[in-house]
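2024-03-11 09:14:02 INFO worker-7 job=invfold-0412 stage=load source=structure_tokens
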């Protein structure tokens, strides 16, 4: 993509309303623009990152055996009355009356709807287990939306729902998602720590929230030093019940808690291995048994002929919130530092002298090669000062920068810069292409 033809409204200064790093940088880098309190338009660069985050989430859900569907944003109030949550949920729910005086709501979550969908389709124990998920926009009418996408009113979320014959099966589904979440966040370059959590309005008696360590995060986090050792979970067999239980048990035995939930005994046990950081919640999983299936009349015929009420769990990841969390965890004083897996483009190609025919020809040729090699490239071909081009590229945080200028061309080299560490080297254009392609 040529920057001269792209829509990238960057800002030199942070807007006064932005209080945290991710909000400031998302506005400055042209990722989002606020359209109403807590509601954002996703601009082209931000949309590219959002799509890549969603793709990773989707791939790990699919690998864990979940099946994708898509439910609507608007829901009937009658479904929520069946479960008993309509009046109990609170003012965060945006309630709507349509032209026929039917009560509707803008969905903050989908337990009721997915239970009704599955209830109308499942008949036998042979229809279980199943885990269904979607990635959809949600709305919660926060009393004080703030911190950009970290606490907005409209947000993109992946929520999955499992249906099992009994508690043992449901806990296995829970463990599958537990490990899938660790894989998901690791692929984005994030260290995520699962912590036992309150179930809140979702309900149930088993829940974990996943906290990404970030120096500028919203919560104080206390954890065992063992959490600093990354584990390789990409080859886990999700159908291995004993293996999954061992993994999840191993991950949950070491102390981890947010400040308001610190446990003195566990903290003392950690001793010198207790660590403190800041963190951002990016995911939450729940097992709640028959809370919704029982209330809404979901039954299937069991193996022995009698009726069974399936056990359920739900599993959420804040897809749009993850973008803010990644920036909180990965930035410097110049701007964003995107992990490779979610970067909007892999390479920022900078032509230092757009008015120089030789520079333009060399930059055009390398851009064509990068494009042909499938390397996503943002080509700064604007007639701008070199300093402005460098500032823009550092701000938007693409993993690689390739700089073409008259002096380098005289020597037959380009400059290759790695955004994360700032390392620079001079090499031929073909060698630079090979390195970024690898």
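2024-03-11 09:14:09 INFO worker-7 stage=emit residues=438
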């Amino acid at each position: 993509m040529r920057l001269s033809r792209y829509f990238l409204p960057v800002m030199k200064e942070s807007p006064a309303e932005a209080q945290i790093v991710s909000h400031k940088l998302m506005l400055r880098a042209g990722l989002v623009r606020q359209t109403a309190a807590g509601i954002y338009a996703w601009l082209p660069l931000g949309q590219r990152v959002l799509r890549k985050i969603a793709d990773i989430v989707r791939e790990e859900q699919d690998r864990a055996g979940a099946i994708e569907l898509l439910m609507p944003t608007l829901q009937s109030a009658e479904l929520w009355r069946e479960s008993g949550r309509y009046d109990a949920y609170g003012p965060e729910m945006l309630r709507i009356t349509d032209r026929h005086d039917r009560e509707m709501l803008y969905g903050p979550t989908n337990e009721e709807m997915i239970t009704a969908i599955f209830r109308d389709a499942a008949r036998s124990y042979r229809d279980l287990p199943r885990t269904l998920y979607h990635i959809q926009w949600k709305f919660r009418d926060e009393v004080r939306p703030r911190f950009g996408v970290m606490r907005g009113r409209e947000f993109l979320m992946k929520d999955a729902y499992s249906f099992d014959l009994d508690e043992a099966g449901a806990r296995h589904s829970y463990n599958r998602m537990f490990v899938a979440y660790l894989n998901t966040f690791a692929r984005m370059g994030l260290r995520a720590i699962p912590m036992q959590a309150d179930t809140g309005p979702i309900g149930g008696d088993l829940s974990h929230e996943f906290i990404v360590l970030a120096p500028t995060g919203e919560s104080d986090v206390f954890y065992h030093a063992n959490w600093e050792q990354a584990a390789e979970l990409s080859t886990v067999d999700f159908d291995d019940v004993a293996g999954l239980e061992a993994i999840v048990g191993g991950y949950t035995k070491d102390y981890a808690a947010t400040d308001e939930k610190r446990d003195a005994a566990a903290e003392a046990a950690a001793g010198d291995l207790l660590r403190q950081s800041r963190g951002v919640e990016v995911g939450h999983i729940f097992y709640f048994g028959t809370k919704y299936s029982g209330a809404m009349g979901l039954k299937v015929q069991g193996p022995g002929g009698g009726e069974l009420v399936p056990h359920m769990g739900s599993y959420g990841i804040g897809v749009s919130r993850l973008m803010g969390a990644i920036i909180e965890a990965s930035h410097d004083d110049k701007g964003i530092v995107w992990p490779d897996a979610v970067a909007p483009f892999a390479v920022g190609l900078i032509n230092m002298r757009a008015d120089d025919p030789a520079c333009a020809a060399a930059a055009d040729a390398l851009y064509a090669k990068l494009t042909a090699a499938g390397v996503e490239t943002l080509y700064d071909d604007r007639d701008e000062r070199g300093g402005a081009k460098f500032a823009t590229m550092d701000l938007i945080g693409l993993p690689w920068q390739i700089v073409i200028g008259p002096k380098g061309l005289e020597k037959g080299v380009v400059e290759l810069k790695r955004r994360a560490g700032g390392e620079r080297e001079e090499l031929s254009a073909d060698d630079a292409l090979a390195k970024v392609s690898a």
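2024-03-11 09:14:09 INFO worker-7 stage=report msg="The chain has two domains: 3-336, 345-437."
2024-03-11 09:14:10 INFO worker-7 job finished
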